[in-house]
Structures
1.
Amino acid sequence: MKTLLNLLIIAALTSTSAFADLKVKAGPRRGLLMDLGTSQAEFFVEKDRSISFALYDAAMKPQPVTGEVITATAETPGGKTKIEFEKKGDLLVSKTPLPEGVGYQVVVQAKASPEAKPKNFRIKLQLHTCEKCGNPEYACTCDE
Ligand SMILES: [Zn+2]
C-alpha cells in the first residue's frame, strides 16, 4: 500500500511538470502514440505535411473522434505557428500544413474531451524514415 501511495505521489509530481513523459510508442500507421488518458491519439505527418490524428481506445481499437480536442504549435526558428484541427471522417486533420523545414519542435496540446485537462507533447520534427525500425524518425522506437 505504501508503495502504491509513493507511486501515486510520484505520478502527481510528474504530472505537474509541463510536459507528459514521452516513452515512444508507435501506432498502426507508424505514427507517434500519445496517451490522452481515456484514449490514445496517433500523430502522423502526411505527405503534404498536414498532421492527422487517428484515435484508439486503451486496447488500441480504432475509434471515431468523440470529443478529443487537439491543437499544435510549430516552433520554427522564424516564430511560432499555431495549427488547428478539424474532424475528417475518423481523423482529426490539421487545417494547415506544417511550416517548411525540419528539426524544429512541434508542441501538441491534446485532451480526450473538452472538459479534460490538456496534455502537452513535444515532438522534434524529423521526417526521414528510420532505417532500423522503419518508422518516421519522430516515431522512432529504437531508443527503448
Ligand atoms: Zn528507429
Note: The chain is about 10% helix and 35% strand.
2.
Amino acid sequence: MNSSIPVSAVISAIRPLAQDVSLYTLQTEPGNLAASSFLAGQFLELSLPGVGEIPVSYCGYPTKDGSIELCIRHIGHVTIPLKTSAAGNVVALRGPFGVGFPMSAYNGQDLVLIAGGLGMAPLRSLLLTLLARRKRYGKITVLYGARDAESLLFLDELLELQRQGAIALSLAVDRTDHGLANVPGCRIVLLPELLDQLAIDPGRTFAAVCGPPVVYPYLVSALQVMALPDDRIHLSLERRMKCGVGRCGHCAVGRYLCCVDGPVFSCAQLAGIEGALG
Ligand SMILES: Cc1cc2nc3c(=O)[nH]c(=O)nc-3n(C[C@H](O)[C@H](O)[C@H](O)COP(=O)(O)OP(=O)(O)OC[C@H]3O[C@@H](n4cnc5c(N)ncnc54)[C@H](O)[C@@H]3O)c2cc1C
Ligand code: FES
C-alpha cells in the first residue's frame, strides 16, 4: 500500500480535551497501514474535503481495527471547520510520514518525556508505546507544562498512570492558579524548571521532547547541564509542511527535510544548524 495515496476515514468519535482542542477518533478499513504501521512521532496528512490538508501527529497506539486517534487544536482555515464536523463525517488521510522516535534505542533505558502544550499529542503516542511493553524500559518520567490547568491534555490518564506507579509525573502551568486545586502536585513554573528537581543517570537515560519551539533552547541546555549527551536528546520539530514527502522544500532545516528526515531528530543531528531549535 502506498502511504502517499489518500484513503477515506469516517470520524467515529470526537472528545473535547480543552477549550480549543479535541481528540478525534477516525475509522479506516481494518488493517489499513495508516492505522496499524506507524511509530510514535510520525505524522499523517489529514484533509477536509474542499478545505485543505494539514500534517497531524499520531496521538494513539497502532491498531489493527483501522482506528486512529488525532489530537487537533482548532486555530486556522482547516482546523476551525473541523470543529463543526460530527461523528459520521468523512475526511481523507495519507501516511504515515517521517521519522519517529527510535524505539529500539530505548530498550532497557530510562525515559524522560517532556511535553509542552499540544506537544503532549505525539508524546502520548510514545507513552502508550512504552506502556504497551512496560517491562522493557526503566523509569518513565513525564514532565508536562501547559498555559493553565484547563489546557493540560489527557490529565486523567496521566494521573491514573502516576497513581498506578507506571510513570513519575510532574506538571506545570505558566499563568494562573485557577483550577489548580483539581490538579495534584501541579506548580506554576515554566516547563524547563520542572527539570530542576529531576535526577537522571545520563548514561542510561533518553529525553524525548515535543513542545513550542521557544522552549527548546532552554530545555536542551538544562538537559546538557545534567550531562545528558546530545545523541540522547530527541526533539520533534514542527515546521511548515506542504507535500509531506520531500518534494516541496517547505520544511527544510539545514540539510534536512523535516517531513522525510524528521520530525524527530537528535540534538546531535541538529548541532551547528542555525535556527534549528527556534
Ligand atoms: C509534523 C507536524 C505535526 C503536527 N501535529 C499536530 C497535531 O497533532 N495537532 C494539531 O492540532 N496540529 C498539529 N500540527 C500543526 C498543524 O498542522 C497546524 O495546526 C495546522 O497546519 C494549522 O492549520 P490550519 O489550516 O487550521 O491553520 P492556518 O490557517 O494555517 O493557520 C492559522 C493561524 O494559526 C497559526 N498557526 C499555524 N500553525 C500553528 C501552530 N502549530 N501553533 C500555533 N499557531 C499556528 C498560523 O500562523 C496562522 O496565524 C502539526 C504540524 C506538523 C508540521
Ligand atoms: S513538506 Fe514538502 S519537502 Fe517537506
Note: Residues 7-97 form a domain with the Elongation Factor Tu (Ef-tu); domain 3 fold (CATH 2.40.30.10).
3.
Amino acid sequence: MLLSREEMTFDWRGARLHPGRDRALLGWVMNQFLYGEVTGIQCGHWLYAAPDLDAARFFARQAVEEFQHVDNFLRILDLLGEKPAAPHALVRFLSTGMMPATFEEHVCLEMAMGEGFVLMALYGVIDTIDHEGIREILLRAARQEERHVDFGERRTALAVRGRPALRRRLLGLSLVSTWAVRRLGRFLQRKLPRDHPVLARLPEFLEFALDCGQLRQRRMGLVEGSVADLSPWRKAAAIAAAYGTSLAALPLRLLPRRRLTDTHLRDREVARTDEEQSGDGPLHIVR
Ligand SMILES: [Fe+2]
Ligand SMILES: [Fe+2]
C-alpha cells in the first residue's frame, strides 16, 4: 500500500473498547461494517466490466473475500450478543448511493479511498478492543482489505498516469465522498456519549483519517500539493468537472460496451510476445 500501517495508526492513548460495557456501541459499529461487506455483490458488476484479466481475477477473488467478511461480522455480532441491524443512511449512501460509473472511478473512490477509510476504522477497533477473539477475526479481515486498497491504489495511479485528464474528475468525486465522511463524523459526535474514552477521540480520529486520505490522493498522483491548500474555487471546479462530465458522457455510456470477452485476445496476459513466453509453455509441450 502507498501508506504504511504505522502511517495509518491513530494514537488512542490507551483508550479501550469493552465488549460488555460498550456492547450496544460495538453492535452499531459492526452493523455498519456488515452492510459494507454485503456491498461485495457489486464485485459482480465490476467483474462484468473488468478491462483486463488482472482486474477480472481480482474482483472474482475479492467477492469471495467480502462474503467471508459478512460471516466474520455475523460471528462478531454473535460474540457480542447483538443482532444484525440496518446501517446508518450515510453509510448506505457512501457504499451504494454513490456507485461510480467507470472502472477508474471504482478503483479510486471505492477501493483506494473508500476501503482505505474502512481499513482505518478496522485498525481503530483492532487497536482498542478488549477481546482477543474479536481482534483475531478483524486482523484476518484487515489483511484482505489491505490487498483491496493496494489494488485500488495501483490501478488508480496507472490510470491517471495514462490519462492525466482523469485527475480533476477523480478529485472532484473524492471531495464529495470526503464531505459525506465529515457529515457522518458530525452525526457520531452529536449522537454518541462524550464521556467515553474512545468516542471522545473520534473527531480527532476522523481528521486523521481524512488527512491519510489526502496523502493517499497525493501518492496516487491525483493532486500535486495538499488538497487542503486548494482554493474553494478550484474544489468547486473539480466537483463541477466530475458531475459535468458524468452528464456529457451519458450518451457514450448508453452504447454497448466492449467487455473482456471481446478484448481478451489483446489482453497483456494473453497476447504475450515470444520472449515473454517461458520455455515450458504449452507450445513446447505440443512439440
Ligand atoms: Fe471486506
Ligand atoms: Fe474489501
Note: The mean pLDDT is 88.
4.
Amino acid sequence: MEQYRYAELVDVVISSKMGLNPNRPVHLFGAGHPMILAFATLMGCDLFDSASYAKFAKDDRMMFIDGSFRLAEMQSLDCNCPACRGLTLEALKKTEKNARVRILAMHNLYAIRNELLLVKRYLREGRLWELAEMRCRAHPAMLDGLRRLREYQDYLERFDPISREGAIFYTGIETRGRPVFKRYADRIMSRYIPPTRKAAIFYGESQKPYSRAFPAEFANARRQGYTPVVISPFGPVPAELDEMYPLAQSLFPEIEDNDTTAESEELTLRFLEEKFDETVSGSELPETEPAPEETKVIEPPTGVVARKGEIFTDDPLDIQRALAVARYQFGLEAAEALFRGKIELRKSKKTGKIRNVISDGEHVLSMRAGDGLYTLRIEGAQRILAAVPAPHMRMAVTDDSVPFVSQGRNAMCQFTTACDPDLVPMDEVIVVDKDDRAVATGRMLLVADEIFSMKKGIAVKIRTGSEED
Ligand SMILES: [Zn+2]
C-alpha cells in the first residue's frame, strides 16, 4: 500500500477471501489510511491497522480523505476536526515538535474515525459501491485497484443482493464493473424469452420506466408485431422488464461516455442476434391507427375480494410483463409452474402497477412496488417444489426447527442442512423439510457458504410459515 500497488492489493485480498472461512473477520494488516477504508470494506475486510496515524504524525504528515500531505508543503489548514479547530497553519507549524506530533496524530485519528463512520453508514444503506468508487478517484493507483476488482465480478456476484433500497448511482465507467451489471447481462441472455421474434429499438435514458416515457411508440411497435427494446447503460431492456430492479431504480448521467455506450451496444448486438430474427429502429416504424389504450378489466377471480383502488385484468400485455419478471427472478422452469392455466392479475388502478398474480384461482405471487420484483407465496412455493428439482430456490432445515419455522420464526444457520448455492442475499427462498415439503417462504440474508460456516445467526428472514393462520 505504501508503494501504491492497489491492483495487486486487490488480487491479494480477493484471493485470500476466496480461501478464508466467512465466519472469521478479516484484518487487513497495514491499512490505516482513510482513503482505502471504503474500498477495503467493499472487498470484505473488517478490521484495519492504525499504526500509520502515529508514524505519519512523527513525519509531519497529515491524513485527509484525498491523500496525505506534508505540513511544510500545505497551503492552508482547512480542517474542522477537534484537534485542528481554531488553529491556523502558521500556528501549527510553529508549535513545539512534541505538541505538534500529538496534534497531528489526533487529527489523523479523527480522519480515520470519520471515514469509518461514513463507511458504516454506506454499508448499512447498501451503497458501499458508490462510496468506494468515489474514494478510488483520489489517486490513479486506487482507480487501478477498482478496475482490477472487475476481474472478480463472478466471485462478487455470489454475494451481491438481488435488490436493494434506493437507486443505483452511476459514478463513472467503473460502475459497470459492479456485479449487478453482470447479473443483468447474464440473466437477460439466459432467462428472457421475447414475445415476438421481431425487435423495435428505442434510445433514451432520460425518463424511467420506459413504458411510461414512450407509451404511444411502444404501442405502435407492438401493433406491428415488434417487441420494444430500449438501449440503456445496462444493455438491452425489453419493455416488459423496465419497472424491475435495477433498471428503473438507477440513475445515469444524460451525457454518456464512450466506454459504457460501447459495452452496452456490444451486449445489445449479442442479445438481438440471439433472441430476434428481425430488428428495426422504433422511430422508423410507420405510425398505425392507435388502438384503445385502456386496460381490459375483468371481474375478480372466484373467492378473491376486490380492494379499493384496484382492478383485475387478464390483458396479454400485463401477463407478458408479469411472466418476464418471474422468469428473470426465478428461472424459466419455476416461472412456467407459477404461470400455469388461467392467469388473472390484480393491479393498482392509479399507478397501473401489477400487485398480485393469480394462477388457476391461486394467489401465487405478489409484486413489490419498490423494486418491481416478486415475493413468493406459499401456494407459489408449492408449485415450484412440485415442478423444479431440488435444490432450486430451496433451503432445507432440521426436523427440530420445522415446528418453529412453519409458525413464522426465522430460519437459523445452525439448523440448516442444505441450501441452493445459487441463491443470493434478498432472494426469495422456500424453506423445506427433509422430504422437500414447504415449511415457509422468506428472504435470504446470507449465501449458502456463509450459512454453513456460521455457528449461529439468521439465514432466512421468514415471511410466511406454512402453519400460520
Ligand atoms: Zn484536523
Note: Residues 79, 81, 83-84, 107, 110 surround zinc ion (CB under 6 Å).
